[in-house]
Amino acid sequence: MCPEHIIELMHQYLDEEIDPEKEQILREHLRSCKECEIIFNELKKTVAFVKSISNMQAPADFTAHVLARLPKEKKKVLAARLLRNHPFLSAASLFVVLMMGSLFSTWSQDREFSVTNQKNLVVKNNTVIVPKGEVVKGDVVVRNGKLKIEGEIQGDVTVIHGEKYLASAGHVTGQIDEVNEVFDWIWYQMKKSAKEVTGFFEQ
Amino acid sequence: MDAIIKKRIKQVIKGDQDAFGEIVEIYKNSVYQLCFRMLGNSHEAEDIAQETFLRAYVNIKSFNQDLKFSTWLFRIATNLCIDRLRKKKPDYYLDAEVAGSEGLTMYSQIPSDTPLPETELESLELQEIVQKEILKLPEKYRSAIVLKYIEDLSLNEISEILELPLGTVKTRIHRGREALRQQLRYV
């Protein structure tokens, strides 16, 4: 039977925690004791065997399976990744934000009365009148004021933040738009820009 | 490496699952291997390894950044494996009769050994023998031996993973080593 303290030294050796003095004691003992030498070699062989089997790989679709089982991702992160991966989208969304900002500010700032300068229009105290029997050729835009149509307008009419009265005898050949709410205003601006763009290409 | 993991963990805390996917890629083999050596079958090993990563994801905010991430991950995995081993009852016995067959036992369902090139056969057999002997170890020795020799971790890391004093870890490894020696000495 091998001495317990020598077995202990063998384990210290295998743990790589033996100090040189004790290693010397172990080596000397092993030289003189056949039985201990066998045990020591068997222990070393055992360690080598156990180490030799360590080479395994997870199944191929392991990561996908794990990700599929995770709780749902937060929307904020999804959006952030979308923008990171598609720079054009982030540029576009920034553009939209800035556009909206400027639109809102122009909507709230623009409180001055104004009217398209057309012949035959009569302006009285923020009220624009198309007199009876008169014909206005071209579009009319009125901001922050009223529009009374008693005659005829050959073109589009737009009233922003105001009112329009169409007398029974009055006549408008084009479209009539009344813009009184912010969203109408934005829609109007979008249509206008679209028209400008298409107009630019038509030219 | 550690810096990358730390960065990924921060992204995961923000909810980024792609970053977590990268973490899984880095550790999947070692976690799977740990589970396989502890449990001894690939189906359960995959199940518990997935569960490990799932728990890690859900509890990532409680991860103490002073610790090594792998230490924390291996701790989750070992605990899950030990839980599974304690709950586990044998699903079937080889000598149980196969349902709907007269006198056929599960032994007859095992394919006969096909001849393999001699060296391959030998190394395969050796692997199987060693795996079988590891599975025979009591779970407390098994986890220490697997972490030490299969995952190649230091005694200090193992003591952190198992949340045990260093001395206890050493004793378990010594006993595990001795038990394996008894079984493998004539191989």
How does this model look, in words?
The complex is a heterodimer of chains A (203) and B (187). Chain A has 203 residues and is of the alpha/beta class. Chain A has seven helices and eleven strands. Chain A has helices at residues 4-14, 20-32, 34-52, 62-69, 75-85, 87-109, 182-202, and strands at 114-115, 122-124, 127-130, 135-137, 140-143, 146-149, 152-154, 157-160, 163-166, 171-172, 176-179. In chain A, strand 2 and strand 3 form a beta hairpin. In chain A, helix 1 (4-14) crosses helix 2 (20-32) and helix 6 crosses helix 7. The model of chain A has no long low-confidence stretch (mean pLDDT 83). Chain B has helices at residues 2-13, 17-39, 42-58, 69-87, 118-136, 139-150, 155-162, 166-184. Chain B is an all-alpha fold and 187 residues long. Residues 95-99 and 112-116 of chain B have low confidence and may be disordered. Chain B is built from eight helices and no strands. The longest helix of chain B has 23 residues, at 17-39. In chain B, 69% of the residues lie in helices and 0% in strands. At the A-B interface, helix 3, helix 4 and helix 5 of A face helix 2, helix 3, helix 5, helix 6 and helix 8 of B.
